[in-house]
Amino acid sequence: MEIRRLDMNGVVSEACCDNDLTKRPPATDEERTWLQAAEIKAEWLRKMMPRGLSAQIAYEGEQAVGFIEYMPIGLSISHVGTDLYIVNCLVAPHTPPWGEATYERIPGCGSALVRAMVEDVRDKCTGIVTPLGFAYTEDMSGFFAGLGFEQFENQGLRMLITRFEAVELPLPVPRKRRRSSPRVPGKVVVDVFWCSKCPASPYTLLNVRHVCEELGDRVVLNEFRIDDRQARAKYGASSGAFVNGEYPWSTYGPLDKKEIRDVLRKALEQGEAAPE
């Protein structure tokens, strides 16, 4: 296994969560949608790298098998801090983001990625913070504790931190009430709040968009892109799809077309559209 720092040649591998669909033709409609979503994430990476975003990618031969992505906390839409880096995402072979593992576990891969990140930014900041877990692993505090991270809480913000020197703990960006679009007589209203930071978000957007097109003009789709703090403050959300102001899905992960189709058809059949 080799750890390499992210460069422009590696953005698609990372954006695909290390399942680089550009190296073979997408075999299914789902894979084609994932590739579109990954291209949106790759565009975001190219824009953010000159501003300080970076990543370490684990390779077995020429196959990317894991990564850790991080950036100065000033680029975060959800946190306020000084002289800190923040981890955006960590994917290792035994902790796939969604679905079943595609690679056998590589012992030490996750630890090697974290250590490479620490080495990269140690002289650039006073410390690194990370969420307790990511979408696919709710609590990784034990894993990070073995690498020098400890838990903290500051004004309701619970995260993990490793300190290189005295630090000022970060704060959450104040959240306003989520914007909800007005009901439209005779129609079901769908609001999609999405961001480019994770391909799961544009994947959901693309699937919702496709299903809404299928169902025709009885469904109204509103799209809100949340890629900066101003947009988050304006709309009060960073990601998620809502039907008539409610969150009706079985998961907070990426939504597939079948579930979207079932939920929207049920809303139409039950007369949840606003009355004429």
| CATH homologous superfamily placement of the largest domain | Gcn5-related N-acetyltransferase (GNAT)
Order of helices and strands: EHHEEEEHEHEEEEHEHEH
What is the number of helices?
Answer: 7
The whole-number mean of residue pLDDT values reads: 88
Q: Which consecutive residue ranges, at least 5 long each, have pLDDT under 50?
A: none
Question: What is the straight-line distance between the termini?
Answer: 62 Å
Largest sheet: 7 strands, mixed
Strand percent estimate: 15-25%
Shape: globular
Helix vs. strand class: alpha+beta
Radius of gyration: 20 Å
Tell me the helix content.
Answer: 25-40%
Read across the widest sheet, the strand sequence of neighbours is 1-2-3-5-6-8-7
Under the CATH scheme, which architecture of the largest domain would be assigned?
3-Layer(aba) Sandwich
Give the CATH level 1 class of the largest domain.
Alpha Beta
Tally of strands: 12
* Overall number of domains: 2
CATH topology of the largest domain: Aminopeptidase
Search tags:
7-stranded mixed β-sheet; 3-stranded mixed β-sheet; alpha+beta; Aminopeptidase; 276 residues; Glutaredoxin
What does this structure look like?
With 276 residues, the protein is of the alpha+beta class. The protein folds into two domains: 2-172, Aminopeptidase (3-Layer(aba) Sandwich), CATH 3.40.630; 188-269, 3-Layer(aba) Sandwich (Glutaredoxin), CATH 3.40.30. Helices cover 29% and strands 24% of the residues. It is built from seven helices and twelve strands. The strands form three sheets. It has a seven-stranded mixed β-sheet. The protein has a three-stranded mixed β-sheet with strand order 11-10-12. It has a two-stranded antiparallel ribbon with strand order 4-9. A hairpin with a 2-residue loop joins strand 7 and strand 8. Helix 2 crosses helix 5 and helix 5 crosses helix 7 (257-269). The protein is globular and about 60 Å long. The mean pLDDT is 88.
